[in-house]
Structures are given as C-alpha cells and as structure tokens.
Amino acid sequence: MIPDEIELETKTGILAGLEWGKDSDSPFLALHGWLDNAASFSMLGNNLPGCHLIAIDLPGHGKSMHRSPRGSYHLIDYAEDVLNAADAFGWNRFGMIGHSLGAAIASIVAGAVPERITQLILIDGIGPISNSPGDAPKQLRQALLQHRNPPKGESRTYPDIETAIAARRRVGEMSSKSVELLVRRGLRKTAGGYRWRHDRRLTLPSPLYLTEPQVLAFLRSISAPTLLIKAIGGIVDRFGSIERIVSVAKISVIELPGGHHLHLENPLPVAEAILNFLANQSSSGDPRCPIDDDQHYDEGTS
Predict the structure, then answer these.
(1) 155: enclosing H helix or E strand
(2) Total number of domains constituting the chain
(3) pTM exceeding 0.90
(4) Which of 110, 134, 260, 272 is the most exposed place for a label (fewest CB within 10 A)?
C-alpha cells in the first residue's frame, strides 16, 4: 500500500503528511516523535486494514511549515496543531496514535478535550517529560539564553543520502531500512547535496516542563479507551510509568520487542496489538477499524 501525500491548510499554517485507507470512516491521526516525521508510520500504515490513518509531519518537521521567528515548539503549541488538523479534516471525533513525543502530545490532547477522542494508542510513551517545580527557574534561564541566540546559518550538508542515513544511525539503534524511511522524507536537495528539512530551533531546550502532578492530572482526564504499547528496552519506564499507567481509567498495556522505534523495526506485532485492541472496542459497541477475514499484513516498505 503506497500512502497518498497530503498537504493541509490549517489556522496556524500548512501541514504535510501521509494518508492510508481514505475510504474508511474510522479516522486516526498519527503523531511522530521528536526530529522524526510522518514516515515513522510507513510500516504501520500498511498493516492497519479498515483504518483511515493520516500521519502528519508536526510543524518544524518533515515537509510541514516552520514556525515564525517569534513562534515556539512547546508541547502545548502542538496540542493546538492537532486540533487544527482535525478541524481541517472535518473530524469532530477521532482516534490518535502517538509515538514518543507524539504519545506525549496525544496524552495531553486526550486529557484536555476527552470528548473529541475515540481511542488513544500510545507507542513507547505516556505523557510528557516532567520536572520538579524547583527546577523551573534554571530551566527557563537555560532556554532564554539559548533561544535568544538560536542556531545561525544552514544545517550540515551531506554529499548523498547514504551519508545522511549513516549519520542518523549513529544517534539511535535502528536498522538501515527504518532509518532510510525517516531520512528520505527528512532531507531536502540543495546545490551542494542534502540538508535536513527540520527547523534547527527544535534542538533548543523547552522553556518550561509540566510538573509530574500536572501530567498525572491530564492522564486522569483521559476517558478514551487507551492502548499503551511499551517497547522492551524503550523509554516508558524512565518516567515513573506505573503511576502514570494507573492514572488512565481505561488502559490496556502490552510490551513488545523492537526498541524505541518498534513500530518501524517490528511492525507486525504492533499492528496485531492495535487491531486486537480495536476489535475489542468494536465488540463492546464502538466499531472502529473492524478486522475483516481477508486482512493481511505487509512486511514491505511503503
């Protein structure tokens, strides 16, 4: 299944993305991780028959717009982007699939506007990174100093795509096949070779983190049936996950191999877990992405 390239005009700017299963009336918005892009869901989108899945490039990432010079990439800003995207699609209610940063954003949105979210699927992430109240002045000071002196000039130029793939592999444990999907969408051709598309301001520190009690308050406000897919060797257990998990009223948890990017590295078990979760919702009276007898899984790339 080759996804359709889409471009969407929202209240805050142009978002790009990839779309699968447009004939289905069960919409899901997929949100990728930090410095990734919509191609993060290339393998998963091929293996969710019956779902209308749209993976967007978050602002500053992939082929989507960059913020204005006075704009920011704070977590809360992304929450508004999600709702603006859903409004532009005409979705009053929709499901969300989020990975890493995308899971943090999805958690906040589902807690803030629970009436709009039908199902929530979190891949190796539940809620955002938190900080203690006493660390706030130090965090803001660090951010102010760096935001007032943002990176200047262009990002590094790579002579070819293979060199960029090798560089991306050095900062994470992913196969060349998975990295290539992200890198090809994340690069732009220039006169001297290839450069990253993402806004360099994404690497600047956040001015403020939520406190852990605030994160738990958002999680307690989630009313949608929720599936948390933990990666063996992933990042969920770094954030006091037990208390976060039990804060979500209707949550199922499964742990799968594949590392932090398990939806790319090991997509079939992830897709199976999602389809089983949705089938259980269907049997309980909320039909979403029904599994048909002819479904099959695709191990190829998009």
Answers:
(1) none
(2) 1
(3) yes
(4) 134
